[in-house]
Design a protein that fits this description.
The protein is mostly helical. Helix content is 73%, strand content 0%. The chain has 22 helices and no strands. Helix 4 packs antiparallel against helix 5. It is globular and about 65 Å long. The C terminus is likely disordered.
Length: 425
């Protein structure tokens, strides 16, 4: 999915020197381009809670597979657009098609695993999303040399849409749905998987919609602190990722093709960092709230360097580190976000709404990083520093409300760690 989301950023500067880039061919202004990126996230964010709940009311294999097939088809269709209206239309349809994928996968995992067992699994899931930036940068570089009968940016959308269609079709047949219906489990094994879960965990046999759970969810103060964390980090941390190749290009030491290549190391760094942190959190070696706060502080330091240092190499290094840290915050906190929601309906709505708020990264992120603020993007980074500072406050507040900021480990926690270790092995 992340390749299909990020390819618009790679396409932004593809073959710009030859005049065959998407902005020139479609006659787009800087504001047009910002809207082309942002319009995807309006239907995506709005439909996230509804699409997430359809995981339960249909089946995970059908709904996740449907999402992948439809988004792959629409991505291929973007290669055929001839004007700004066509680009906006296909991007809006793409957002509607993809809605629910990330929260749906996390909701799906909650039917199988305890929240304490989700940290590493979600980290791995998200880390491959980060790798998509690496793959997308490589494909954009390679496709830049295919500029000919079709412009490189059109080839990029075609090549990146086809795998989603094929994987979506495979998902219909491969993905097991719920523990109660998994054919690879015997009756006794199904019972063990279900009994391990808490009474508040999502379950196939529960009602899909429970109004009482929804009311209790909105009255829970952690719903609002987690939501504020996701919103602030979306713009302050993730906003940069949607224009990263352009920001790298504006550093002034590379071509557009090499700028796409230089967008690859930050994605690789995020992949490595995220898996290490996910393992440390799941093994209870590090507290997820303090890890998330530390990541935000490092991100702030990187943005301060980008505001104050002119050396191109230092600025690129700061971009690399900030991209890696920004991409790690959500996955580290997701298990705690799931744990704070009680019940099948509450979990689905909480996960869907929380992830919907993350889509402000694509709605407001491109506005914060408009090219008119380049090449220094001073205003952009000042805004991001303020939002990340607020995110630190909300992360700490969430942990304090749940009583999970402490360092001391109780005897029960040690026993639970041993059980998790045995299960993981």
């Amino acid at each position: 999915m992340r390749i299909d989301v990020n390819n618009i950023s790679n396409a932004a500067i593809l073959n710009e020197e030859q005049g065959d880039d998407i902005k020139t061919q479609l006659g787009l202004t800087a504001q047009d381009w910002a809207w082309a990126i942002a319009c995807f996230y309006y239907p995506y964010g709005f439909l996230e809670p509804f699409s997430t709940m359809l995981i339960k009311s249909t089946t995970p294999s059908f709904w996740i597979g449907r999402i992948m097939v439809t988004w792959g088809i629409i991505v291929c269709c973007i290669a055929t657009v001839q004007n700004y209206a066509g680009l906006i239309s296909t991007r809006v349809l793409l957002g509607a098609a993809e809605a629910g994928y990330y929260p749906g996968v996390i909701y799906y995992l909650a039917f199988w695993f305890k929240p304490e067992e989700l940290a590493l699994r979600v980290a791995i899931f998200y880390s491959f999303g980060q790798v998509s930036g690496f793959v997308g940068g490589f494909l954009a570089y390679a496709v830049s040399f295919a500029d000919g009968v079709l412009p490189g940016w059109r080839w990029l959308f075609i090549i990146e849409g086809i795998p989603a269609i094929l994987m979506g079709i495979a998902t219909f047949f491969i993905l097991p749905d719920f523990p109660q219906t998994a054919k690879f489990l015997h009756d006794k094994e199904q019972a063990i998987v279900i009994q391990r879960l808490s009474e508040d965990a999502p379950t196939k046999v529960a009602k899909t919609w429970d109004r009482r759970q929804v009311v209790e969810l909105f009255l829970d103060p952690t719903f609002w602190t987690f939501s504020a964390t996701w919103f602030c980090h979306a713009i302050g941390g993730f906003g940069l990722s949607y224009v990263l190749p352009t920001v790298i290009y504006d550093l002034g030491f590379t071509t557009t093709a090499l700028s796409n290549v230089l967008s690859m190391p930050p994605s690789l760094a995020a992949f490595v960092l995220l898996n290490i942190l996910g393992w440390l959190v799941q093994m209870r070696k590090w507290n997820p709230y303090w890890v998330a706060i530390g990541l935000e502080v490092v991100n702030i330091i990187c943005y301060v360097l980008l505001l104050t240092v002119d050396a191109v190499a230092v600025r690129y290094l700061a971009l690399l580190v900030s991209t890696a840290t920004a991409g790690s915050v959500y996955p580290i906190l997701w298990s705690n976000r799931v744990k704070a929601a009680h019940g099948t309906t509450a979990a689905g709505i909480a996960i869907g709404i929380t992830n919907a708020l993350a889509q402000f990264s694509g709605i407001l992120g491109p506005q914060v990083f408009l090219s008119i603020y380049g090449p220094t993007y001073r205003v952009s980074f000042i805004v991001c520093v303020g939002l990340l500072a607020a995110a630190v406050v909300f992360i700490a507040t969430s942990g304090a409300l749940l009583g999970e900021l402490g360092f001391r480990r109780t005897e029960d926690t040690v026993i639970e760690d041993k059980e998790n270790s045995l299960y993981s092995s």
